[in-house]
Amino acid sequence: MTVRSVELSNRDLALHNLWMSLKLAPTSTDSVITASCKNEDICLGAIAICAKTNLQVAIKVVCTDDERPPHCSRDEVRLLKQFAQEKAPANITTLLDVFTEDLTDTAMVFPYYAFTLTSWLRRHAKRTKASHFNPYINVDSRPTTAEYISSLTLEEGVEIIKGVANGLDFLHGLGVIHRDIKPDNIMFQGYNPTPVIIDFGISYKIPNNFGKESDSNKICDIGTGIYKAPELLFHIADYGYGVDIWALGIVMTLVFSKDLKPVFEDEDIVDFKLMGMIFSTFGTPSLEIWPEAAKYYQVLTIR
């Protein structure tokens, strides 16, 4: 993902800059561009929001020809418009405008959020330095990394989690599974403690995701790293809202930690190793506790 700054004066210039940016990153599926709107015309359309100058927005550009399931920008736009119609809470991002070029590239305009959950927490933490001990290196030249001590109160942490849960409650009430809840998809506007859920590019709409996935055979290659639910690791394809709830639970371990580290620190961990870490940390569930895994167990037994 490439982030570039451009100044927009009108809709045509915006399109030109967007596609030029894409050409500079041909291997990237999508590009996020932070821009300063100097002209209200940039956000013309059904959801015109750009009402004052110098309003910062985030523009997500997707090369639709390069999209592979479960990614689908057209369905993302459809969902975002539905959220607006259903009066989504402040915990769900707003689609300000959308336009296309040559019917292949889609640009979605969103409010600009300055912080992800992780960066917002770090802004409210004390920063220290931690040395990596090596007896063969002089103590003054040992490499150091930034460490953080959280200053978040219990009440503040609870409000953040309640905000994300409120957003998920809205989504689930509409039959939408987000499928990629993680700190990078939970944003904040400045120092405002209201969390905002973003990125619905791989979300699932019940009952069959606009005819692309049946309810009993959903795509399991979703989620990110340590935030993947156990059913995804076992390829239990009839999963439901629980994958979002599990991810929120792992996010909670970050929010309420003293060192701003989630329960599993290796965020790029492979699925097989993550599976072992989940069971060693939280225990191994029985089929009575986790009946959804019974089908998977039967398949293994037959083999």
How is this structure best described in words?
It is a single chain. The protein has 303 residues and is α+β, with helices and mostly antiparallel strands. It folds into two domains: 2-112, Phosphorylase Kinase, domain 1, CATH 3.30.200; 154-302, Transferase(Phosphotransferase), domain 1, CATH 1.10.510.10. 31% of the residues lie in helices and 20% in strands. It has eight helices and twelve strands. The protein has helices at 11-24, 73-85, 117-123, 154-173, 230-233, 242-255, 271-282, 294-302, and strands at residues 2-8, 30-37, 55-63, 97-101, 105-111, 115-116, 125-131, 144-150, 176-177, 186-188, 196-197, 204-205. The protein has a five-stranded mixed β-sheet, sandwiched between helices. Helix 4 packs antiparallel against helix 6 (242-255). The protein starts with a strand and ends with a helix. GO terms for molecular function: ATP binding; protein serine/threonine kinase activity. Residues 18-303 form the Protein kinase domain. This is Protein kinase domain-containing protein. Keywords: ATP-binding, Nucleotide-binding.
Summarize the structure.
This protein has 303 residues and is α+β, with helices and mostly antiparallel strands. Helices cover 31% and strands 20% of the residues. Residues 1-12 and 19-53 have low confidence and may be disordered.
Give the number of domains.
2
In CATH's first tier, which class of the largest domain applies?
Mainly Alpha
- CATH architecture verdict of the largest domain: Orthogonal Bundle
Beta-strand residue fraction: 15-25%
CATH superfamily of the largest domain: Transferase(Phosphotransferase) domain 1
**Helix proportion:** 25-40%
Average predicted local confidence, pLDDT: 79
**Radius of gyration over C-alpha positions, nearest whole angstrom:** 21 Å
SS content category? alpha+beta
What spatial form do the alpha-carbon principal axes imply? globular
Family: Belongs to the protein kinase superfamily. CMGC Ser/Thr protein kinase family. CDC2/CDKX subfamily.
InterPro entries: CDK (IPR050108), Kinase-like_dom_sf (IPR011009), Prot_kinase_dom (IPR000719), Ser/Thr_kinase_AS (IPR008271)
GO molecular function, one term: protein serine/threonine kinase activity
Keywords: ATP-binding, Nucleotide-binding
